[in-house]
Amino acid sequence: MWLRGLTTSAIISLLATFLVFNFPQFFLSFGPMFLVLLMSTFISSMAIVFGRQITRRLKREKGAIKWFDPSKGYGFVERDKGGDLFVHFASVNESDRKLLKESTRVSFTVTNGARGPQAEQVKII
What distance in Å separates the CA atoms of residue 125 and residue 118, rounded to the nearest whole number? Predict the structure, then answer.
């Protein structure tokens, strides 16, 4: 995906360079329009590259651990929006599993599990 955005930006940049150096009268008459085209292509290619990351970050919620027992393999998170969510041991980042204690601040995504909504991709903030 990032390769497509990089390739599009490189092609448009090469085209702009070619037109500026070989056809200066073209650039003087159509320059502002061409610069708008260049910038819009660059912005759209960056949206292609980073769009999924931005979307994932916007969907993440924050909360605090209500309780978590590593020996049992599950616990609960209290959402900032209100309510509690089930957290399974496998949903927690490996490096954070031993550090989860009561009232630890975490970020997570909400998914629908077999028994209702639950927290996934739990990370300590």
Answer: 18
